[in-house]
Write a structure and sequence with these properties.
Elements: E1 7-10, E2 20-27, H1 52-66, E3 71-74, H2 76-81, H3 83-91, E4 95-98, H4 111-129, E5 135-136, H5 149-156, E6 161-162, E7 184-187, E8 193-196, E9 201-204, E10 207-210, H6 214-219, H7 222-234, E11 240-243, H8 259-266, H9 272-282, E12 284-286, H10 288-298
Parallel strand pairs: 2-3, 2-11, 2-12, 3-4, 5-6, 6-8
Antiparallel strand pairs: 1-7, 7-8, 9-10
The structure holds zinc ion.
């Protein structure tokens, strides 16, 4: 039976969090690329050289130096093979959250398949890091209009927030209908409630322009990233920075793919670390669950 679309209620955090931004990492390997034929076969994955542990440890060192707590959306497939990495992230005080198990696009999954994928990832993460996983981010921000059932599944599983909506046009993913790029409460028709921390966009000439993560962050100049983040912050909206370990790994195996994906995947790999350092110096960042604490207080 089709259910009605949930209601999205914009929320602003407490005044103490004005100008504070949100730092997130999607922890997966260089070959976890959606919709790329040459790395689609999961039975090949265990045979590929893994860079995720080394590069994530390097991110952890950087965050330690800056004294910043971030959210790590960890792929279940990675957590299953590198439990020690999950423990290390948790031990250094960061928030552990789910990026699903097998890096499947949500809009390609049935509700039952999504439930199984999410449950499997939560079982692994809870086993390694203990209970208390609150958040989920879909691979490639793939909760699109029509996939709102995914929020119901998350709420049924006891999650408190989602960070999967990308309020701009996008190859995979993209969601229409949010009032702004700030946090929202998602009120479902059955009475359940979830919070949403969408990807950041700025409005330029009537268009929603992403800037704060992945290929956008690698492409744009660092000073512009700081400027746009501050501009959002003045509107009471945090910049949500998202990066993968591979975003900061210039020397990684190159995967065969169409030219536009190649550009998006590999532009600016050598500059991302310096840009992240600049952002960490210039702006204040916190983890998703800490930002939500401030949102709850404002409700
Ligand atoms: Zn991913």
């Amino acid at each position: 039976m089709a259910k009605s679309r949930p209601e999205f209620i914009p929320i602003k955090a407490l005044p103490e969090l004005a100008g504070v931004h949100v730092l997130t990492f999607d922890i997966e390997d260089w070959f976890h690329l959606c919709e790329i034929k040459s790395v689609r076969n999961k039975t090949d994955w265990p045979g590929l050289t893994s860079l995720v542990v080394r590069e994530t440890l390097s991110i952890l060192e950087l965050l330690d130096r800056h004294g910043v707590r971030a959210t790590f959306f960890i792929l279940g497939w990675v957590a299953e093979r590198h439990a020690e990495l999950v423990r290390e992230i948790a031990m250094r005080g960061h928030e552990i959250a789910s990026h699903g198990y097998a890096h499947e696009l949500v809009y390609r999954m049935s509700r039952a398949d999504f439930r199984d994928d999410l449950q499997r990832s939560l079982d692994i993460l809870c086993d390694v890091a203990g209970n208390g996983i609150k958040g989920y981010r879909a691979p490639s921000f793939s909760i699109t209009n029509g996939c709102e059932w995914a929020f119901e599944v998350m709420a049924e599983m006891g999650l408190e927030y989602d960070a999967s909506l990308f309020p701009a046009a996008r190859g995979e993913g993209g969601y229409r209908g949010l009032e702004n790029a700030g946090a929202h409460a998602i009120q479902m028709s059955g009475g359940e409630r979830l919070f949403e921390i969408p990807m950041s966009v700025v409005r330029v000439a009537g268009l929603s322009i992403p800037f704060s993560g992945g290929g956008y962050l690698r492409l744009l100049p660092g000073n512009l990233l700081v400027y746009l983040s501050r501009r959002l912050g003045r509107q009471g909206i945090p910049a949500v920075v998202y990066l993968h370990p591979r975003d900061m790994t210039p020397h990684q195996p190159r995967v065969s793919m169409p030219w536009h994906r190649r550009f998006r995947s590999y532009v600016g790999l050598g500059s991302a670390r310096a840009k992240l350092e600049l952002l960490l110096r210039e702006l204040r960042f916190i983890a998703c669950e800490d930002y939500l604490w401030g949102c709850r207080g404002a409700l």
